Amino acid sequence: MADSGDRKVAIIGSGLIGRSYAMLFASSGYQVSLYDIEIEQIDKAKDDIKSQLLKLEEEDEQYQLIQGVTDLKSCVEDAFFVLECVPERLEIKQNVWKEAEPFITRDDVILSSSTSALLPSDISRNFLRKERFIISHPTNPPFYVPLVEVVPASWTDADVVTQTLKLLESIGLVPVLVRKEVKGFVLNRIQYAILAESWRLIRDGVMTAGDLDKVMSCGLGVRYAFMGPFETAYLNAEGMHSYSERYADMILGIQQDMGPPERMDGPVLDLIQIDMEATVGPVSEIQQRRQWRDRRLAALAKLKADLNKND
Amino acid sequence: MADSGDRKVAIIGSGLIGRSYAMLFASSGYQVSLYDIEIEQIDKAKDDIKSQLLKLEEEDEQYQLIQGVTDLKSCVEDAFFVLECVPERLEIKQNVWKEAEPFITRDDVILSSSTSALLPSDISRNFLRKERFIISHPTNPPFYVPLVEVVPASWTDADVVTQTLKLLESIGLVPVLVRKEVKGFVLNRIQYAILAESWRLIRDGVMTAGDLDKVMSCGLGVRYAFMGPFETAYLNAEGMHSYSERYADMILGIQQDMGPPERMDGPVLDLIQIDMEATVGPVSEIQQRRQWRDRRLAALAKLKADLNKND
């Protein structure tokens, strides 16, 4: 797309996700029009972007590529990619799109949303151009965690799927295709499968929450930084069939031993909160701990890039 | 324990796990007596240990602390910690212990097994000193993945629990306490919860196995290298209660949408195998890929240590 002079990306919503996408597109040389309702919001977003780009040692040039606007028409007209990043409520999203669509000028436009929780067919059902719509759900913070779940509706054009995957990859992200609309897509389904079993183990007094977190961060999780569950299995035997021969019965027995999920609330939640305060720190210091996390995510991203260069 | 002159560790079984434990104990200055049935096995283990210690730039001194023996009596007598690392079959383990126990001389000995799959009460039921028995299940490879699950039986003495945790921590491992005997302990239960949902997503055609692995390695997993599922939740909101208020209903809805587990076999397994061959490489090259993995685990272990130093 970049070759044919299609350089304008419209981003609707200047919150954390909208800003991150704006920086990623600008860093790849795209012109970004970043929309929000209030000029104060835009100013806040641009200040944040400026300081983040500085930290990343990006040139001022990238910053100049991002234009903040409060006029939806000027945001979306001529854009080849319109990405909506407004709050996670169906009504809000549908209203923004209803307002924006008449101003969209290109027939080959791609319309996208960063939603993590809503299904593409629910958002785009009443669009003028519903066949041009697709979800691009990023992982937070997108600069250090590159995965994006790309989710078409049943009516999405095939070229929208292939072009969106290509575009996101070209700006340094790792897009994966969710081929069917399922609640939570894939990332959150796996995350919530982990939480369901972790919750039961705390409830049953098998382990403290602090220790259970170590099982991940000092055990399982160091592998998962480099490989998924299937590659882990593949390498733990001589491929999938030998893995199955050795472990399938044992694994099924353990899986069948895991009861139904429970709503995360009540005394078990209190117990986990107390343990997190003791091991992670009080809620009042969460912001510092997020910085602690982000320093690690940034260092790991760099390490992975270096390792891949030296392979 | 080290202070009172208790320096002899007996390790029964010189396979991968036995060797790793031998190196870890020797690196902390313990005298290790490493037993196997055949002298050839011992020689093979010692050659491997030597080359590994060289790679880790450990001194020859450490190597000298490991003595290989084929005589079970001389292995276990005077040892304060006897660690059995023989193959994962209950009968084999029970027989080895039956043979070893009469030779054990110290009343305050700790008896341990590296098993990942057997329960401590099943192994130690008929021991002479069953109250001295506890499981120390490591993660592979223990030099780069430091987690150890410590699992007592209901009859295990309290001091065996506290001393085992302390001892393992003193040699650089991260021990966590499994307070009740559950199948698969904690690490494998979480691993198999992930596999159960991943399997269903492949079966239902939601995603390819290669892409699903990326959801972990380029998304969820980069966080998990540094924090577990509860800290992830804690930082994704303002603590556990705010996480629950925002997401508990949505999460439960998604968890209830995940069907029962299936045995890993048949056409879905074939599909995953084909995708792994394409993305990871053929089964014939698994050994190189394991080295690729271990280079990364070693680099991440170093990165984490450096980051913690600079905090």
Short overview:
The structure is a homodimer of 311-residue chains. Chain A is α/β, with parallel strands linked by helices.
List the defining traits of the structure above.
homodimer; alpha/beta; Rossmann fold; N-(1-d-carboxylethyl)-l-norvaline Dehydrogenase, domain 2; 3 domains; eight-stranded mixed beta sheet; 13 helices; 53% helix; globular
Q: Mean pLDDT of chain A, rounded to whole units?
A: 95
Write the H/E string of chain A, N to C.
EHEHHEHEHEHEEHEHHHHHH
How helix-rich are the residues of chain A, as a percent range? 40-55%
Order of adjacent strands in the largest pleated sheet of chain A: 3-2-1-4-5-6-7-8
- How would you describe the shape of chain A? globular
What is the number of domains of chain A? 3
Q: Runs of chain A with pLDDT <50, length 5+?
A: none
Measured on Cα atoms, how large is the radius of gyration of chain A?
22 Å
Class of the largest domain in chain A in CATH? Alpha Beta
Q: What is the number of strand segments of chain A?
A: 8
CATH hierarchy: architecture of the largest domain in chain A:
3-Layer(aba) Sandwich
Q: What's the CATH H-level homologous superfamily of the largest domain in chain A?
A: NAD(P)-binding Rossmann-like Domain
Report how far apart the termini of chain A are.
31 Å
This entry's quaternary arrangement is: homodimer
Number of helices of chain A: 13
